[in-house]
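Box 3.1 — From sequence to structure: Gfo/Idh/MocA family oxidoreductase
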Amino acid sequence: MSKRIRVGIIGLNPGIHWAAMAHMPALAALAHDYEVVGVANTSLASAQRAAAAFGLRDAFENAQALVESPEVDLVVVTVKVPHHHALVSAALNAGKHVYCEWPLGNGLAEARELADLAETHGVVAAVGTQMRVAPEIEHLRQLIADGYVGEVLSTTLVGSGGQWTGQTDAAHAYLEDVRNGATLLSIPLGHTLAGFRDVLGNFASLSAQLIVRRTSTHVTDTGETIARTTPDQVLVQGTLESGATYSIHYRGGVSRGVNLLWEINGTEGDIQVTADSGHAQLTQLSVRGARGDATALTPLMPPANTYEGWPDDVMARNVARIYALIAADIRTGTRSAPGFNDAVALHETLDAIERSNAALHTSGAVSPESSR
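Predicted structure (token representation):
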């Protein structure tokens, strides 16, 4: 391997696209660790346009050519969820390290297959649940561990997903079909649950409902109306392994109020996390708290120096913090970045939510452990 880790990105396009807005600036901030050498898209022409726009050396004819290239050490998969399994499998079978966006697979079965394949090849296989490494979440986890609120009694989480409003464009119409695995449950709530679990622990029991309130969607740039099969309301409640109770409501669209409100209530104090978006992995989180005799919440943000050396933009910052862990894992053999086995555990929770919804009128609450 060269001194810098050579990166090939599958799914990089100029403009308002995730890889361009988050991955490229994140990698630029870690230029001492990484060199982006090439791109593969749905066509060679698309790859060539991206390579020219970003000044990359190689535009690969297709994804298979990228994963087989001896010039690529780390394959980054930033395409739609239904394509994750095939592309990640190809990269792993080529012996490459992989960074795959969340969700890892289109459902639990695919995630398990990819985790097993990564284990077989012994490579670094990371998943983009970047809320877990957000400075505010690491700080919040320490506050809870240090007993800021005392014993956690309950927690309430309400978030807005932005999409799933009854209106979309053709590029995002695939989000309306539950079969594509890119849903309100799997994307904004899934990302947020990754951080939620790090702070407060796993679910011990849950009862869930997935509700479709808007049954059709207007596609603005084509004028057509399509059926929606993915829920725009997600309700989950139960107990955590600590014994604390939790209640979660994620909704489609955007609220005119706060779009993320997470409260943690304990015997000694309270913490409130808010943000402008329910996609907690890509928005600035504000943490406030009060304990003891205090009657008003005050800021509880990480120290200012926590942010030094990282991109100012939140999306790029959190992704860069994942890449920093991946670089250390590749060079030292550690496994500090969120990995495929972590992704499987999160997929198991989402699967338990789906099964609870399906069994609502028959078996009641479902244990997340029963999916393992």
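Summary of the box: Residues 5-129+313-339 form a domain with the Rossmann fold fold (CATH 3.40.50.720).
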